[in-house]
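Notes continue from the previous slide.

Worked example: a multi-chain complex. Inputs as given:
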Amino acid sequence: MTQPIAPAGANTWIIGTRKGAWSLNMGGGQLGEPWFFGAQVHHVVQDPRGSETMLAAVRTGHLGPTVYRSTDSGRTWKEAGQPPKFRPKEDYADSPLDADDGRRQGLTLDHLFFIAPAHASQPGVWFGGSSPIGLFKSEDDGVTWEGVSGFNDNPQLSKWCYNFAPGTPDGPKCHSVQVDPTKPNRLLVGLSGGGLFLSDDRGASWAPINSGVAMEFAPPKEDGTEYEFGHDPHDAVIHPANPRRWYHQNHCGIYRLDWQDGAAKQRWIRIGNNMPKDVGDIGFPMTCHPKDDKTVWVVPMDGQTIWPRTSVNGKPAVFRTRDGGESWQRLDRGLPSRGWHTVLRQAMAHNGGASLELAFGTTSGELWGSSDEGDSWKSLATGLPKIMSVTAARID
Amino acid sequence: MPAVRVRVASLLHSYTGGLKVIELEAATVGEALKALEQRFPGLHFRVIDEQGQIRPHMNVFLNEDKVQNLATPVAAGMEIYIVGALSGG
């Protein structure tokens, strides 16, 4: 859920791809001319807090990662004056970190992966999750970026995230940066791999929040307890309409957490157990209905044997729950009867509107849309490069 | 300090305002890159990462020698080339 709250009046899909970004009016029409043609566009997010700012996480093969800003609906873009970057290793020379800690070896930003606006009460403040794993913040509407020290310099971070080791095909990622709409100090981030982590002090301190989440890629702990971290969440959301309800799609299942006041531990329940057994509950994106905290869409991927990560049994389908994950409906009307789609974690979105539009993009460059909450799907675009993200924006 | 000429490949022309050749004074390759940053903000980080290393897909040459160390001294009349590496497919 890369964009829990879409900008009011969103009318355009923004499609980030391996070779640039494209816009497509939701009412139909042709793809626009590409932005950042030739560059990897991991995420493009328009500010849902009322400003005109749009930020793009862009990486070129030669020149490295950066952030671009637009304040005119994408007509013009300007590079951030101070893009995100890690601290030089010399800064950690006298730190208590282990000698083999990735930060003491020197981390180099490969790309900013996830862009998130901060709380509505903090206009101009943005967060960015990166690969290698890091969390960055801008307080001037995306012009300059600094690392969030409470996260990036946290002594526990290397332990939480396998010491920044590559574990996912495009590198380890900090993603799903979520701000609780009712608690400005509360932040949730997902680490692939590493798990989900919560801060209740605007990022100054962090703790794992993975109780109940499976880790089928590791042996059971000998003392019978759960792993506190090391998990692989793919996509997580604090529900915008009910911030006490969280969902996440994990490498090992689909989960819901209902916040329990006074509980010693918050606990995830595996609502993916209610998916058809021949489909399973592996996938990447998860999209929540903006108003209804019981409605969620996922795109199951084949997680058998060697993890092909394509449509299960070669039959593309979206699955939807209307009851918080107690039951799921297969939605494949309009989708190809045979196909091997891969839908990445940032490649599904809604427009936030009363008349809800949904879209997802595939790594084979197809964009699919639904105007009836997923009951049926139609092709919106084909022939695009590998789609890495889909978001909604208002472009007049 | 020695006067050197820096030739910049097209992928950096958006930073140099279209200039292909820049003349400046520097004692080392690293100083030349820092001098470029003074004139063209943002260019340095596109060539040198935050750990002080030349980005893996960028190449810097001093005359015809590939630069491995930014402390490499330069002499008057030398040329520095900043180019995209042969990479990808």
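Summary box: Chain A touches chain B at residues 60-64, 79, 81, 83, 85-89, 106-109 (CB under 8 Å). DSSP finds three helices and 27 strands in chain A.
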